[in-house]
Amino acid sequence: MKKVYELTDLCCASCAAEIERDVKKLEGVAACNVNFIMQKMTLEISEGADEKSVVKAVTKAVRRVEPDCELVEK
Is the pTM of this model over 0.85? Predict the structure, then answer.
């Protein structure tokens, strides 16, 4: 399942790269691409993974890198 999120208050390309790297390591994440210029994250959740728990883990990973950043589903 593919989901697209707007990343509000993402401050720099370095943070975007760190978020992408950390999210890719999470269980249940098949793929992740963070575009700093577009302030957008494309997230692919693995088949059979619990979507709600994956999104919760992704949100936690994003906030660890960028505490003021919010994920807004598009």
Answer: yes
pLDDT, one tens digit per residue, over 48-58 is: 999 999 999 99
In three-state secondary structure terms, 47 is coil
Say if CB 52 and CB 1 are below 8 A apart: no
Helix 13-24 vs helix 51-65: angle between axes, to the nearest 10 degrees? 140
28: left (phi over 0), alpha (psi -120 to 50) or beta: left
The enclosing H or E element of 67 equals none
Burial class (CB in 10 A: 0-12, 13-18, 19+), 45: buried
Q: Is 27 helix (H, G, I), strand (E, B) or coil?
A: coil
The H-or-E segment that residue 61 falls in is helix 51-65
| Amino acid type, 35 | N
